[in-house]
Amino acid sequence: MSHTAHIPSHRKPRRSASKMALRAGVAGGVLSTLAVAGAAGTATAAEPVTETVELPTLTADLSAQIAQSADATAQAADSYEARAQQDAAATKAAKQAAKDQVEAAKKAEAKKKAAAKAEAEREAAAKRAARDAERTQLSTQSAPSGGGSATTASNSSNSSDSSNVSTPSSGSVAGVISFLKAQVGDAYVMGGTGPNSWDCSGLVQAAFKQAGVDLPRTSQAQSTAGTPVSLSNLQVGDIVYWGGAGSAYHVGVYIGGGQYLDAANPSKGVVIQDLSGYPASGAVRVL
Fold first, then answer.
1. Domain boundaries, the chain
2. Cis check: omega of the bond before 195, within 30 degrees of 0
3. Per-residue pLDDT of the chain (287 residues; tens, 9 = 90+)
């Protein structure tokens, strides 16, 4: 026995050829199996997945229902359109009726105004005719007679001259003249408005108030208060003034026969005078 026989050997035992062949065979089988599985997986992944869905087949009843629904929809649309047209026609008719009513009201109002205007013109014409006749009568009655009166110089002579002018009995102009005559002999006071003292415009204003005419207070305003008339066409009741129209400094009232009545000045008071002795600058007519 060798002296090293008791020491275990560290060499690995040799494998036998049969075992190695077995292991190689097992490994080759495993690899073959993996290859086959991989090929199969690849082939499976390459194939597209398809699925067939069967659609329902339209039956005769379903087709009829669809057609009926379409007809109903068309009829509803026609109905809505017809109703819309009717509504539009009704709205238009209502607007036209309202317009016609407004036009009829305007025509009726215009006709009413025309009738009222015509009536007012007839009344005005009748009043003018009455005033003209009254003025003619007053002028005839107040014409100076025989020894005609000259310009009065005192209140006493004024009273005698006023007897030559008859007192009118009625009418707006007559009321003005009657009032003026009743004041003859009253005192003149600057700013006086009656009942016993006057200035020129205060007397004229009060006289015309008897006829329902509201005149301005001053002689300047009274000189433009009516329709301008020429001195050659004076009528009883016309306002005569001295100075320019709108800037007159004195006024009186024409009473016919070439005479006028006024609140002259502090020395004369309210008197009747002849225009020939103190010609007026202009005249206006308010009645």
1. 80-141, 152-285
2. yes
3. 555 555 555 555 555 555 555 455 545 554 555 554 555 555 454 455 555 555 555 566 777 777 788 888 888 888 888 888 888 888 888 888 888 888 888 888 887 887 787 777 777 666 666 666 666 666 565 554 443 333 333 343 343 343 333 333 345 899 999 999 999 999 999 999 999 999 999 999 999 999 999 999 999 999 999 999 999 999 999 999 999 999 999 999 999 999 999 999 999 999 999 999 999 999 999 98
Q: Which two three-digit tokens encode residue 214?
A: 């509201």
205 in Cβ contact with 243 (< 8 Å): no
In the block, tokens 């060499």 appear at 11
Asked if residues 215 and 208 have their Cβ atoms less than 8 Å apart, the reply is yes
CA separation for the pair 220, 283 (Å, rounded): 12
Cα of 105 vs its chain's centroid, Å: 18
193: DSSP letter: B
Q: Any idea what DSSP says for residue 233? A: G
pTM: 0.47
Please tell us whether the domain made up of 152-285 is placed in CATH 3.90.1720.10.
yes
Is-contact 250 268, C-beta < 8 A?
Answer: no
